[in-house]
Amino acid sequence: MKAKIEETAGHFPSRRSAIMPALFLAQEQYGSITNDAMEEVADILGVPKVWIFEIANFYTMYNKEPVGKFHIQVCTNLSCMLREADGIVARLEEQIGVKTGETTADGMFTLSAVECLGSCGTAPMMQVNKTYYEDLTVEGIDEILKELREKAGNGGERRRHDANGGDRD
Fold this sequence. Notes:
Blueprint: H1 2-9, H2 19-30, H3 35-45, H4 49-58, E1 70-75, H5 78-82, H6 85-96, E2 109-114, E3 126-128, E4 131-133, H7 141-154, E5 161-162
Parallel strand pairs: 1-2
Antiparallel strand pairs: 1-3, 3-4, 4-5
Helix pairs in contact: 1-2, 2-3, 3-4
């Protein structure tokens, strides 16, 4: 991880500017952002540990606990709530058998409610790992879950919008 963080830091004007991408690298490697991971990032970047702790604890995209194979994050901000995000959450809870903030016993799904994911024009929406699912309907949730379960079994994936930009094939 150190080499990746060092390489990433080289693309920024200061090492402090590389904190967020370094935290994403740590999360990819460890599955969540633990205190040890935050200390490691601080040591690699040579910045005060408090800077790392502040950022990791402020932003919801950094997971302090391990998440399932599919981390379902439903936007519950104003635009999405006005377009039935609460119904989306209720349907997900019903279909995967956990409440918001929990992970299924088999480790397949973690369900989270999050603030704005920056796709208000296509509300309601959710992000599963790095993929956005937009213009959701309560009725469409079952099909998405079916696809995710199939993906877990055979590696197939439906075309969706990638949160990092561009379409995914």
